[in-house]
Structures are given as C-alpha cells and as structure tokens.
C-alpha cells in the first residue's frame, strides 16, 4: 500500500488506534489522535438497530402535509453534496451520484417531487449523510426517511447501523427515538492520512 497518498479510514475502531499509529510511524507517516488536529475527524459512536421490524413510515403523523417516501434519485447528487459538511465539490457530487445509483437510500419528497429530507447507505454498509432542508425541520421527515431505510435494510437481511459523531446530539436523540442502541465498544473515528 502506498502510505504517501491521501487516505481516509472510515470508522476505524479507537481501541486499535495505537497499533495503527505504530505501524504508520514505521512507514514515516504521522497520524494524529482523532480530534488532536484537523487531519482527523471527531470520534464517533457506533449505533445498531437490533429490532427485527421497524414501525411503518406510513403510520407517522406528518402534520397533515402530503409527502412521498422513495429512494433518492441520481439527479439529486448535487443537492446532497451541497448539504454535506465535506461536500460542494465536483468529486463529492460524483461520489454521491455513485452512492445514490448503487446503494439503498430513502427520501421524503413534497407533493411536487422536491427532496425535503434524506438518508443514504454508505458503500461500507452504514447509514449516513442524513439531512433535512432547514425550512422543513421539526416535521419528523428525517424520522420518516430513516424508518424507510431501516425497513429496506431489514428486508434485505442487513443489520442497520450508523456512526454518530460525538458532537451531534440532535442526530443521537433522533436515532434513540428510532430504537438504535449504542455499544460502548463501538467508539471509532474517521482517520484522514496525508490530508
């Protein structure tokens, strides 16, 4: 492996960080502890959905507004990229076009087909990149989208799981309401090397 190239280790277990750091330092690569400086992301917790079923999204009250729940469409990759904290670049838009075209996702659309809230499945199986447009927050749309994606995962035999950054209390609260469970051994971080 060429350790001089830029690399991101997704959700690397913090319990194994000292081993990774020792190995990389032998290769001449400095790896800061997560949150030590800007080359590593905030530590995350791993949350699992350990239930066999998920309450139907159709049974949720959406304040009487007519919405549609369906997968994201590839043409929405630019919108998803612009709302992601690392997005807004052509590379991020290409990445999301691939993700949306390849893996399950769920989106709440208004009656005219405009995306209001969504969540995707990442290439390594976790759910993430969830977002609700600011004008539509507080209407439980993200819970609708999440329930839909959980249901799709369960139907396919996947274990729904996700990583929530330490600072993201809003996401943590929503996922607790959805029935996710945190495991203490699930501490991890997104490690960026040679950024």
Structure description:
The protein has 195 residues and is α+β, with helices and mostly antiparallel strands. 29% of the residues lie in helices and 28% in strands. It has five helices and nine strands; from the N terminus they run βαββααβββαβαββ. Strands 1, 2, 7, 8 and 9 form a five-stranded antiparallel beta sheet that branches. Its EC number is 2.3.1.-. Keywords: Acyltransferase, Transferase. It is an enzyme of class 2 (transferase). This is Glycine N-acyltransferase-like protein. Belongs to the glycine N-acyltransferase family.
**Strand residue content:** 25-35%
Topology as H/E string?
Answer: EHEEHHEEEHEHEE
Task: Tell me, briefly, the overall form.
Answer: globular
* Largest sheet entry: 5 strands, antiparallel
Structural class assignment: alpha+beta
Give the overall pLDDT as a whole number.
84
- So how many helices? 5
- Unreliable spans are none
Q: What is the helical fraction, as a range of percent?
A: 25-40%
- Report, as a whole number of angstroms, the end-to-end distance: 16 Å
Task: Tell me which oligomeric state these chains represent.
Answer: single chain
Number of strands: 9
- Radius of gyration using CA atoms only: 18 Å
Keywords: Acyltransferase, Transferase
GO molecular function: glycine N-acyltransferase activity
Protein name: Glycine N-acyltransferase-like protein
Enzyme class: transferase
């Amino acid at each position: 492996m060429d350790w001089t190239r830029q690399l991101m280790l997704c959700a690397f277990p913090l319990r194994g960080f000292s081993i990774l750091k020792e190995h990389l330092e032998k290769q001449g690569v400095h790896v800061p502890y997560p949150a030590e400086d800007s080359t590593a992301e905030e530590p995350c917790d791993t949350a699992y959905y350990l239930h066999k079923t998920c309450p139907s999204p159709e049974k949720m009250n959406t304040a009487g507004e007519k919405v549609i729940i369906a997968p994201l469409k590839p043409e929405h990759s630019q919108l998803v990229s612009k709302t992601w904290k690392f997005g807004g670049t052509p590379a991020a838009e290409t990445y999301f076009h691939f993700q949306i075209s390849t893996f399950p996702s769920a989106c709440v659309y208004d009656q005219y087909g405009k995306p209001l809230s969504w969540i995707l499945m990442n290439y390594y199986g976790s759910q993430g990149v969830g977002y609700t447009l600011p004008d539509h927050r507080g209407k439980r749309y993200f819970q609708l989208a999440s329930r839909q994606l959980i249901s799709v995962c369960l139907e396919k035999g996947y274990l729904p799981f996700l990583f929530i950054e330490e600072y993201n209390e809003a996401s943590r609260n929503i996922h607790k309401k959805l029935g996710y469970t945190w495991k203490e051994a699930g501490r991890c971080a997104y490690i960026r090397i040679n950024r």
